[in-house]
Design goal:
single chain, two-stranded parallel ribbon, 9 helices
Length: 355
Amino acid sequence: MNITSLFIKVVAVFVAVACALPPSYRSRERCSTSLVRKEWRDLTDTQRFNYIKAVQCLMHKPAKLSSIYPAATSRFEDFAITHQVFTPQVHWTPQFLPWHRYFLHEFEKAIRSECSWTGGLPYWDPIRDTANLTESPIFDPVFGFGGNGAYNPNATQFFGSKGGGCITSGPFKDTKIHLGFGSDTTYNPGRCITRNIQTFTTKWLNPSHQQLTLQQPTYEAFQGFIEGVGNISLNSGIHGGGHLTVGGDMLNVWTSPVDPIFTLHHGNIDRLWALWQALAPRQRQFEISGRLAPRRPIPGSPNLPVAPVGNITLDYELTLGASNRNAKIKVAQVMDILGSSPRGMPVGILCNRYE
């Protein structure tokens, strides 16, 4: 199956199943006026320029978390440090997908309400770049996020990659980040965003691997397969493959959101989850399962003081901590991107769709 036909099939499935979920499953009807999330190259040049300006706006808005985390000096860094703090609980666990869906929703709300972005959160589908990843419009210096980092001999280099240092082009090349590295949440006087673009990742970023991902039979199987195992000798998944492709800060599981490409990459992971759900909605729309304890240690982190026990359920609570006033929602509330939830559960908080 070529990339064009796969893309057409994906769009057709989203359209065909828009109302496929039987009403008896729902606590309310799905929302009728949804935000549309588009792939980066499907935005106009003006839209891409405006989105970049909106991200830069978040980078200059005063932080809300600076009294708790001095490294958060802007609204943009509020989100980055929230991810950093919650990393041990939300990676290689079944809450990986719903937590990041919630994270994207709050980021989308912020960039729309605080920085005048009028659309849905864009995403990046690297499968459309399989033939030449380095020429992806995501790396465009004017209507993208800039390209590779300068060569850093001390950075981890894979298969001849030649970056690892500060990005040298595009609208974010002079951006200063104040988070520490890894799990270090202390204030950093200012460092650059780094990248180390590589292309060997097409072994996971291709139509065949995506099709295999969507063929996973259960939520646990799908979640583990798309997230990857964090080992380039095994399956890094579409999630791990995207992080590896961009490299640099995006390769750090803790602080990867300091690169603005992060939200576009995770938007695509969320899109694929929504598509997997839509392929068998009666079974999958509200399917969630798996042990809460992380399947493997997080690189650079101590073990959790008290490892989570039990299994995830629709009733399990998600939080972004102080980033969202310590509010808590149930997993059930983010299981449908069009806002329905199982009967007996609080109503869903989402209202978006992917094109």
